[in-house]
Write a structure and sequence with these properties.
alpha/beta, about 475 residues, 4-stranded antiparallel beta sheet
Length: about 475
């Protein structure tokens, strides 16, 4: 019988039966079950990019599925860019495949040969490298999920980088940037920590994803290399596909500079120790992260009175339990729904007699809103370095205020800032500082005073150092127990 997919023009599945089932029916059923059990809700904006793991499905399939479930309601894309770091080869730039199709047990996935050819013709950082694709699992394991969701409405552009050069990775991102819009989807394939013990993996993976979301690309690369050199938390690496991740970070930065409104949503974390296979003495970490094309302030500005009161109560009860029982509240995702499970940044502010008693938050969303409020209420009460930990006798006097944050937008002109409406973040080298929108109104500052105090009092720089800094604005929904 003639082979349906001749060897000459197609890359055969190399990891079927090892990383995922080799039989079509079994593979389809496994993906169906993974998506059903790990579906995320309330993803309404257009998905621009996903960061998902690439281990065997028994280990990382649940975390990968949480990311891919965000695509279930998406209309098809013109092409999907699969971005990975080569596990077996080191080479300059990026390797593109020129095959007709990539084959899996679910059938053939067409390559978008026009885009592949255009990238290769641009020369310099892109070249045809079939050998690096032939025995690489990081892109192959993504294909069945995409096939299940998009069926025959799918074409891909497979890109593998073999470089650890920050300048080369930025150049790769520059060539890909014309496609970084709503018509195309970018899949970044990466696992996280490799082989620390379970507890150390959880700590390191949390730190790594936070830095991935918040730091500049160059700073993130330096941190990764230092962590690898020092075997941080006993890990060989904090992120095995960090070079592929750097491409997304450069794309994101350029998009923000061009005033795209993008927001990261962290969807899921696990490691191989959670799978029931192997032990917990040396594990591999997995995150799923989605980058959304978010319209301005999104739907969080429509929190109901009931939702606001529930978040305020959660914050107070969490602080109270720590003071009375020495432990924080445990939250269960099944107890929350709607806007409260959206991945949003937030600050929790404590005041006594209108004077600040603690304020800590997260500008970038790293989890569902209810969990952010739980964590930040604890930090504001007990971990704000400007204040002693809150005492039991102070709790009745405390008024709690919550600020739910919209996506930040890079600005070039300080005249864009509206004091009282906009919160401001500045980044100057390795230093950053942030003011919530209400600070300017409370202090009676104009724009220049706001920026001066942000630079001098929060960042520890000169009064006018903001002029050489990157500036970002955002809006917030602010509510308190005193409303």
């Amino acid at each position: 019988m003639r082979d349906k997919y001749p060897e000459k023009n197609n890359r055969k599945a190399a990891f079927a039966g090892r990383f995922y089932p080799s039989e079509k029916a079994a593979l389809k059923e496994e993906i169906k079950n993974l998506l059903k059990k790990n579906s995320v809700k309330n993803i309404q904006d257009r998905v621009r990019a996903l960061l998902v793991p690439h281990a065997g499905y028994v280990y990382s399939g649940a975390t990968a599925a949480s990311g891919y479930s965000s695509l279930l309601n998406m209309s098809p894309y013109k092409a999907v860019f699969l971005i990975g770091s080569s596990h077996r080869y080191r080479f300059s730039g990026a390797g593109i495949s020129t095959m007709d199709n990539f084959i899996t047990p679910l059938g053939a996935v067409k390559l978008n040969k026009a885009i592949c050819a255009d990238l290769i013709e641009e020369g310099a950082v892109f070249s045809a490298k079939e050998e690096v694709h032939s025995d690489e699992h990081s892109l192959e394991v993504q294909l069945p999920f995409l096939q299940y969701i998009f069926e025959d409405r799918l074409s891909v552009v497979p890109v593998l980088t073999g470089s650890t050069s920050v300048s080369e990775l930025e150049e790769i991102a520059g060539h890909l940037y014309p496609y970084f819009n709503d018509d195309y989807l970018f899949i970044i394939s990466s696992d996280f920590s490799h082989y620390p013990a379970y507890k150390e993996a959880v700590e390191l993976d949390k730190e790594t994803i936070d830095k991935f979301i918040r730091s500049e690309p160059e700073d993130f690369a330096s941190w990764i290399l230092d962590a690898e050199a020092g075997k941080k938390n006993g890990a060989h690496t904090p992120m095995c596909g960090w070079c592929a991740g750097m491409i997304l970070k450069f794309l994101y930065r350029k998009a923000i500079i061009d005033n795209n409104k993008l927001i990261y949503n962290h969807l899921n974390y696990s490691n191989s120790g959670d799978s029931g296979f192997g032990d917990r003495d040396g594990v591999v970490g997995y995150h799923s992260l989605v980058l959304l094309n978010s319209d301005a302030t999104n739907t969080m500005f429509n929190l109901s009175t009931e939702e606001k009161n529930r978040l305020l109560k959660l914050a107070r009860d969490n602080i109270s339990m720590k003071l009375s029982e020495g432990r924080f509240i445990s939250t269960d995702s099944s107890d929350f729904s709607g806007r409260l499970v959206q991945n949003l940044g937030a600050f929790v502010t404590l005041r006594i007699n209108k004077k600040l008693r603690g304020c800590i938050g997260s500008l970038s969303p790293t989890g569902p809103l209810y969990e952010t409020i739980r964590q930040m209420s604890a930090a504001s009460a007990f971990s704000d370095s400007r204040f002693d930990p809150l005492r039991p006798e102070e709790l009745e006097k405390v008024e709690i205020e919550i600020s739910v944050l919209g996506p930040k937008e890079r600005i070039e002109d300080a005249a864009s800032i509206i004091p009282g409406k906009h919160g401001v973040m500045m980044v100057h080298g390795t230093r950053s500082a942030i003011f919530l929108p209400q600070v300017a109104s409370e202090q009676g500052w104009d724009t220049m005073q706001l920026l001066g105090h942000l630079s001098r009092d929060k960042a520890g720089l000169k009064w006018d150092s903001w002029k050489e800094a990157e500036l970002y604005i955002y809006e917030a929904l602010v509510f308190s127990e005193g409303d």
